[in-house]
Amino acid sequence: MKIVKLFTVVIVLTLLAQLHGATPTRAQGTVIKIASHSPLSGGQSQPGNAIKNGVDLAIQQLSKPIKDLGFTVELAPFDDQADPKVGPVNAQKIVSDKAIVAVVGHYNSGVARPSSVIYNDNNLVMVSPANTAVDITDRGFPTVNRVCGRDDAQGAAGADYAANTLKIKSVYVINDKTVYGAGVAKFFVQSITAAGVKVLGNEGTEEKSNFDAVITPILSLKPDMVYFSGIYDQGALFFKQARAKGVTAQFMGPDGLDAPDTAQIGGDAVVGLVYTTTAAPAALSPDSKQFRDDYKAKFGSDAPAYGPEAYVSTAIVLKAIEKVIKDNGGKFPDRKAISDAVRATKDFKSILGTITFDKNGDPQVATYYVLKVKSADPKNWTGNEPVASSKANSPLTPATGAAASATMAATMAATAGGAAPTNAPAPATMAPTMAATMGATTTPATKAATMPATMAPTMAATMAPTMAAK
Amino acid sequence: MTFSTRAANWTWTYILRPFLQILLFVLGSAALMSVIAVIVSLIFRTPASRGATLEIDLFEQLLKQLPDTLIDGITIGFLYAVIALGYTMVYGVLKFINFAHSEIFMVGGVIGFEVMIRLRDGSLLTTFPPVLLVILMIVAAMAFSGTLAVVIERFAYRPLRNAPRLVPLISAIGISLFLQDAVRALEGLGRNQFNLAYPTDSVPFLTQRLPIGPTVTISVTAIIIVISAIIMVLGLNYFVNATKIGKGIRAVSQDQATASLMGIDVNQMIAITFLVGGALGGAAGVLFGLKAGNISPFSGFIPGLKAFTAAVLGGIGNITGALLGGILLGLIEAFFSSLLPFFPSFGTSYSDIFAFMILILILIFRPTGLLGQRVDEKV
Which of B33, B194, B302 to mutate to test the interface with A (most CBs of A within 10 A)? Predict the structure, then answer.
């Protein structure tokens, strides 16, 4: 008995000692850390690990200029478990480690929102590869940036494809009640209602395993399309059960479904699923081929969605760090200076195209893709067929940029057709409408009133508060 | 008494009567819920819909949905009932709530997944007779989960048997967390998978639907769940009420000290209780996996909580009560969540709130649950 007690005491002491060791007491040295913050465990770990791996690869491949200045760059991976409660706790740890000068994350907008408040209070820059919820950047935090698109445009792009290409007449919308899912659902419903499609239901559910009750009304209402606004671990299972119960509608969803596990979980039920995404598919981002090959060589699988985006986010951060070190004469870079340098990113050439951040940290032009699932085999996920793509300006970007982007989208569409010559339907291009609508920075309200286009009300609605805030 | 009358007697006591009782519970709960739903739908015939695009006659909508809702409710109800049996048996014997039971259930689902995926990897899955496959999965899960429950009892509960009542409860929660993370670690390292998707697409038998009316179909999985659950409940009824071991378990549940004075091995009886409860939980895990198509290390929590609720609703410690509670809770849930979408200010997500409100109401008027008896405090 005595031995047991002694043993317990020793264990407790060891743990305490470790806790002490974990507290960052080190002085600022030559080690610069970049934190990746994404779900590394749990149901959404697949894209989360892709983000971590993307950061890892970028640090290995692109940190040489900083090494030449006498610093080493390290990856500090954090696991937010896709949980809005865990994210901020980790964020406190991150900001208290003085060696960490930037964060690349998160996967879930619902986690990014509270965590970014903590980063912002500590002038720590965050570049998000995947958070599409509008208010991530619309809050106007100087430290928060993203390289992906926004949900207002994503919802509109999805609605446009559903209404004008698939020509559906009715839709039933389910969302996962998170910041992300509920956000996309809102914009999708706004746009699709404006396009004259009947919305038969708009339900939120946190159910993760038994969707019977959600499916029953869908069975009897017989919508043309079921739109699931959420993440794949929930969505794919919902689709599987809906098909099994006899729902024959077209399935659709946003970029939360863009993960090979969608096919792993959903099986045959998700073949034919169309989803919108802001993560560049391999077929439409030829410049990212080198990255994808390196990723596969290093991590043993095709790079899932948002791996390339994490790579680009890290590249932007590394560039900014390098600039700050050069500017301050070789001293340890200051967080605030890095944050400013990231926000000033202009015409940054990346594997996903040229990126310029606007005043709120949105990329001035973002691309939105619509893809169709071709196979129930998760290994073939990268072979999903791009059926449409479009570019849209961020709300703060004036129309001139948008006009240019329309032509780019057209080229893009041509590339899509070329990349997959067997696909009969020509990719739909929404760019002209979107450019016209979204470029209306002057009087969005009046413009929306005269504009019969799908997206007009959405864009006007989202732009108005931003304008007022300014 | 001749052999044939004895056989008839036996059949009546252990098969027909309990079966009729189950039937009565199912039909009674279904009729009660349907009547309530019809009345509600007639009162709120045209609930204000979301936007102007949706005009719905709630009564007509209800009639259209009714068969599916009933099938769903009864199916999930039987599942809850089978899980609830595990809670209620342990409570009956030890007066202690085994919160690790939801994880024993989840482990059963994982075992079912492993059996199926191993058969697929050996490319036997498509040729394997589907009924045999289901039986194999259930038996494997029962064996594993039952053993696991016994091991847990031996190492986590038995040393604490004379400790204050809250201590084993904490131990149970600890075991529950341990099992979640153990499965997460094992499957994460072994398969690099968190979401364990049952490869049901490879077994056409499991995905087909049988027509039982002009517009209504029922899935084979639902039939499998109901039949297996009924067999298990009948088996448990026979085991507890007709065998010597069952008698021992009942004796221990009444009074441990006296039972041991009568020459009953209390530890053994408790271990057997855990074995049976765990096995039922494991079987339920497989059935749940077949129904949902996916198991994850955390998917035991919610069904476990609901089943625990069902056990309390029926009267914890009472086996028949667990059955009634499970079926009733499944139906309540199915009705609420299929009708709430038509009430714009609520939505499906409120179904649990209403279900638990009903539970609270029932417990206010019958604190011991629907079929529970007042247990006198032992002096």
Answer: B194
